[in-house]
From TrEMBL:
Belongs to the sulfatase family. Residues 40-316 form the Sulfatase N-terminal domain. It comes from Rhodopirellula baltica WH47. The lineage of its organism: Bacteria, Pseudomonadati, Planctomycetota, Planctomycetia, Pirellulales. Keywords: Hydrolase, Signal. One of its GO terms (molecular function) is arylsulfatase activity. This is Sulfatase atsG. The keyword Signal applies. InterPro entries: Alkaline_phosphatase_core_sf, Sulfatase, Sulfatase_N. SUPFAM superfamilies: Alkaline phosphatase-like (SSF53649). It comes from the Bacteria. Pfam families: Sulfatase (PF00884). PANTHER family: ARYLSULFATASE FAMILY MEMBER (PTHR42693), ENDO-4-O-SULFATASE (PTHR42693:SF53).
């Protein structure tokens, strides 16, 4: 290997100042931007599906990763780095756009239709290309939005920075390693007899897991996968060093979201959002970063911030007026002391495969609020891909056979609408403080900040997925147009967190509204209350006026509204929901609408005691479902014993 030498890049065709639209990404100091004739390379190394908890560099229970630790010794460790979403396509779309998914309509996994990017926003490597960078991706994209300008010179398994037109061309390269992907844990029982390098006896299991051979083996085996990832990281570093480019290149290592043991990927807990992030700083561009090598920061950074950070390091101008959501955390004009004061991150989880949900979170410092808008559904709601994992299967079996304690059983029970955690004392998020009067002020503060964020971003999740698809051609513009309506739906959904004496009156009015989505969210709020508050459940079921109004809503002309009424009637056990589901599915206006109704069917079919058993033969659809699609997965599951 030979020494990396300073590369003076002269790109006569480079555009010095490209103006991608970046809101709130103003520089935080006054140092000079790098000259466009000497710009660094930037490489992203992503591992799939792993939170920070599996690396000893971030968590004492993790495995040693010498290559990643060597990067950290020559760079910066970000102890509080977060994906904004806990699953691949939504997280990766946030990375590539710098935008919150619910604001731009990219929050569903898998997407039904690709969203149109906001005016002035591009997948950010397009701006790098336009300024003279060679951009490559090897090779996973998984974006939920349409490309406008092409972001990549090459996006394929063969994509490599080595293929750039000349050695003088700066490059941005992304490589994703799948050795840590969830699918690696889809092994059979025979695999339990195979030894792991990480000793299962020394594994530290979170308190919400049962302490079994299956869980210990799975946790140890996954740490072995992280050792493989570390070897892959070492390989990338070695290639850069051999080519003499290591000291010209900022190298980022991070997980593409959290995971991947149960209650990680797909869930908005820390195991689903808190990712490892290390940035190696090259000697030849050391002046661009005002931090000590080998230092750590507890300032919050999240995936919305990665795009403006890369653009800033590359010397691409950050236009103050643009509509992306992130702020740069490295590079010229960025004051590290101010970055260290950042203490807030927002998260979102919506449909993941066939399983619908709508969960939003805010973390400020060590305090975190999770708002489950469909809290009557347990976290354990079935999704085919999740339950290919032996650990998921065993966890579920032990719940149904009464072999779990209260903490281990939480995953399988209806959730409170609000979960408040003090992560300093409760890093595994098992002790909900939302009902503790001692923390009432904290709850009110975080609730207010989260609601303000949802309204400011015109969260399109409150239109339902079927409703959002009607505005997906211009999601941001339509979100602004519907801003007051969306704010109203958020307020209606939040009836679920009111004291029951107040909520009772609000529900009667909202369920009788002339606005179909206000009726929809009122029924969702009522279901959340009924599933969690036994006294309120009894009051609703005994209130003749309420039951009559609920029956009228089961006859609603809007299939989603009538289906939500049927779901609430089943929770209260005041009316058989099956004829209602039969009718609404026959009248469903799109496969997306039918998919959401089937999620309600599946929830009712899994209620304790199975009061309303259903099979696929009960339902007819106005279209033929894809035999390999998500609706067919619902139908197949209904017929399982």
């Amino acid at each position: 290997m030979f020494q990396s030498t300073f590369r003076a890049v002269t790109c006569s065709m480079a555009i010095l100042f490209v103006a991608p639209a970046v809101a709130h990404a103003q520089p935080e100091s006054t140092s000079e931007a790098p000259n466009s004739a000497s710009r660094p390379n930037i490489v992203w190394i992503m591992s799939e599906d792993n939170s920070k908890h599996y690396l000893k560099h971030f968590d004492e229970t993790g495995v040693e990763t010498p290559a990643i630790e060597a990067m950290a010794a020559h760079g910066i460790t970000f102890d509080r780095a977060f994906s904004n979403a806990p699953v691949c396509s939504t997280a990766r779309t946030t990375l590539i756009t710098g935008c919150y998914g619910p604001r731009i309509g990219t929050q569903f996994h898998r997407r039904t239709e690709l969203a149109t990017l906001p005016e002035g926003v591009e997948m950010f490597p397009a701006w790098l290309r336009q300024s003279g960078y060679y951009t490559t991706n090897s090779s996973k994209e998984d974006y939920n939005a349409k490309k406008r300008m092409e972001p990549w010179d090459d996006s394929s398994r063969k994509a490599s920075w080595k293929n750039r037109p000349s050695d003088a061309t700066p490059f941005f390269h992304v490589v994703t390693f799948a050795e840590s992907h969830e699918s690696r844990l889809h092994f059979g029982v025979d695999a339990l007899q195979k030894p792991t390098d990480f000793d299962p006896k020394t594994v530290s299991l979170p308190p919400y897991f049962p302490d079994t051979q299956v869980f210990r083996h799975t946790a140890a085996f996954y740490r072995d996968r992280m050792s493989v990832i570390d070897e892959k990281v070492a390989g990338v570093i070695g290639q850069l060093e051999q080519a003499g480019e290591l000291e010209n290149t900022f190298v980022f290592y991070f997980g593409d979201h959290g995971g991947v043991l149960p209650r990680g990927k797909g869930y908005i807990y820390e195991a689903g959002l808190h990712v490892p992030l290390v940035v190696r700083v090259p000697n030849n561009y050391r002046k661009l970063v005002d931090r000590e090598l080998g230092s750590r920061t507890r300032g919050f950074v999240s995936f919305i911030d990665f795009a403006p950070t890369v653009l800033n390091l590359a010397g691409v101008r950050l236009d103050k007026a643009g509509p992306i959501d992130g702020k740069a955390f490295l590079g010229p004009r960025i004051d590290s002391a101010k970055v260290d004061t950042r203490d807030t991150t927002f998260g979102y989880a919506d449909r993941m495969d066939e399983k619908y949900d709508l969960v939003r979170s805010i973390r400020v410092g060590d305090w975190k609020l999770i708002r489950s808008f469909e809290s009557f559904q347990p976290d354990a709601m079935w999704a085919d891909y999740r339950y290919k994992m032996l650990a998921y299967q065993q966890w579920r079996d032990r719940y149904h056979t009464g072999k779990l304690n209260n903490v281990q059983s939480q995953f399988f029970k209806p959730r409170p609408p609000e979960l408040l955690f003090n992560l300093a004392d409760d890093p595994h998020e098992v002790n909900n403080l939302a009902s503790d009067p001692a923390h009432g002020d904290r709850l009110t503060e975080l609730r207010s900040k989260l609601n303000a964020h949802l309204k400011q971003t015109n969260d399109l999740g409150f239109l339902t997925e079927a409703g959002m698809l009607k505005v997906i051609d211009a999601p941001v513009e339509n979100g602004k147009r519907l801003s007051s309506e969306i704010a109203g739906y958020i307020d209606t959904a939040n009836i679920a967190v009111m004291p029951w004496e107040q909520a009772n009156k609000e529900l009667l009015s909202a369920i009788n509204s002339g606005d179909k989505l206000e009726r929809y969210w009122a029924l969702v709020a009522a279901s959340s209350i009924a599933a969690w508050n036994r006294s309120a459940n009894r009051d609703m079921a005994a209130d003749e006026t309420f039951v009559k109004l609920l029956h009228r809503r089961t006859l609603d002309t809007e299939p989603l509204v009538a289906s939500r009424a049927a779901q609430l009637a089943a929770i209260l056990q005041v009316e058989d929901p099956r004829p209602i589901f039969q009718r609404t599915l026959e009248l469903s206006q799109s496969p997306t609408e039918a998919l959401q109704i089937f999620n309600m069917v599946r929830h009712v079919n899994a209620l304790a005691g199975n009061p309303y058993p259903m099979s696929s033969k009960l339902f007819r659809l106005p279209f033929n479902p894809d035999p390999k699609g998500l609706i067919q997965q619902h139908l197949d599951h209904l017929d399982r014993p």
